[in-house]
C-alpha cells in the first residue's frame, strides 16, 4: 500500500504533522510520500490512499490549498482519504469545507481531524502567541493524535470530526472578506529593519505567491495570502510591524 500526503504549510506546523503521519505509516511498513503543493503541479492517481493537510486561515482551508485540490487533484475511483488541518484552536472547518469536493472527485473521506498547533498569527491582543509550555504540549499531543489517525485508518474505521455546516459557511464567507485585506497588508504595514536584513532573499524565494521582490529594498505586491512564512522564517528576524520585531514562533 502506498499513499500520498499532499499539504500546504505556511510556517511549518502542518509540515510537522505530515512528517509525523509519514513516520507513523512507515513504522507500519506503509510508504507515504510528501507532496508540497507549492512545489508540485499534480499528483498521480495510482496511490492507494491520499492525505490532504493544510493550515487553517480564518477557520477554513486557505484558497491556495482549495484551488490546488480543485485544479490538480485527479479524479479517482473510490480511493480512501484522510483530511487533516492544523490550527491554534481545537477545531477548524477544513474537513467539512472540502468534503463534497473530494466526494465529487471519487474520494472516500474516512477521517477528518483538526490538530491544534501553535498559533503563527499574533498581530493583535485578540490573537495571542501560544505560551511556550502549551507549544510543547501541542507537539506531543499531535504525536498521539497522528497515532490514532493511522490506527483507525488501518482498521478501516471512520474517524470523522463533527464540524458544523453553519459555522463552515460563515467561516468561508469571513475568509473571503479577510483575504482581500490579507492581499494588501504587508505593503501597508510591514517594514524591514535593514540593520538586520542580510539580503539572503529567503523571503523572496519562499513566498508562496511570489509577492516579494528585492531591488535595492524589499517590496511587496498585492497578492499576499498572509501565511506568515516571510515573517516567521526570516533568519534575521528583520521584519517590523508597528515598528516592532516579531517574536518568531
Ligand atoms: C492568516 C491566518 C489566519 C489564521 N486563522 C486561524 C483561525 O481562524 N483559527 C485558528 O485556530 N488558527 C488560525 N491561525 C493559526 C494557524 O492555523 C496555525 O498556527 C497553523 O498551525 C499554521 O500552520 P502552518 O505552520 O502549517 O502554516 C491562523 C493563521 C494565519 C496565518
From TrEMBL:
Gene3D superfamilies, per the entry: 3.30.70.20, 3.40.50.360
Needed cofactors:
[4Fe-4S] cluster
PROSITE patterns given in the database record: 4FE4S_FER_1, 4FE4S_FER_2
Domain named 4Fe-4S ferredoxin-type: which ranges?
188-217, 218-244
Q: Which Pfam families match?
A: Fer4_10
Q: Alphabetically list the UniProt keywords.
A: 4Fe-4S, Iron, Iron-sulfur, Metal-binding
According to its UniProt entry, what is the function of this protein? Ferredoxins are iron-sulfur proteins that transfer electrons in a wide variety of metabolic reactions.
The protein depicted here goes by the name Ferredoxin
Amino acid at each position: 500500500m502506498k499513499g500520498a500526503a499532499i499539504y500546504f504549510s505556511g510556517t511549518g506546523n502542518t509540515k510537522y504533522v505530515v512528517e509525523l503521519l509519514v513516520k507513523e505509516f512507515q513504522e507500519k511498513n506503509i510508504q507515504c510520500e510528501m507532496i508540497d503543493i507549492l512545489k508540485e503541479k499534480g499528483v498521480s492517481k495510482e496511490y492507494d490512499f491520499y492525505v490532504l493537510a493544510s493550515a487553517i486561515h480564518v477557520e477554513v482551508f486557505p484558497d491556495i490549498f482549495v484551488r490546488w485540490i480543485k485544479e490538480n487533484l485527479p479524479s479517482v475511483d473510490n480511493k480512501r482519504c484522510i483530511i487533516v488541518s492544523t490550527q491554534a484552536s481545537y477545531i477548524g472547518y477544513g474537513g467539512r469545507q472540502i468534503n463534497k469536493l473530494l466526494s465529487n472527485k471519487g474520494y472516500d473521506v474516512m477521517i477528518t481531524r483538526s490538530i491544534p498547533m501553535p498559533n503563527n498569527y499574533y498581530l493583535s491582543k485578540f490573537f495571542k502567541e501560544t505560551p511556550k509550555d502549551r507549544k510543547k504540549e501541542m507537539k506531543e499531543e499531535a504525536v498521539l493524535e497522528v497515532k490514532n489517525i493511522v490506527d483507525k485508518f488501518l482498521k478501516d474505521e471512520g474517524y470523522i470530526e463533527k464540524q458544523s455546516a453553519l459555522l463552515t459557511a460563515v467561516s468561508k464567507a469571513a475568509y473571503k472578506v479577510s483575504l482581500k485585506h490579507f492581499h494588501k497588508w504587508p505593503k501597508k504595514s510591514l517594514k524591514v529593519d535593514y540593520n538586520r536584513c542580510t539580503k539572503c532573499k529567503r523571503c523572496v524565494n519562499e513566498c508562496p505567491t511570489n509577492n516579494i521582490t528585492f531591488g535595492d529594498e524589499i517590496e511587496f505586491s498585492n497578492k499576499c495570502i498572509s501565511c506568515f512564512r516571510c515573517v516567521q522564517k526570516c533568519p534575521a528576524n528583520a521584519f517590523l510591524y508597528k515598528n516592532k520585531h516579531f517574536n518568531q514562533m
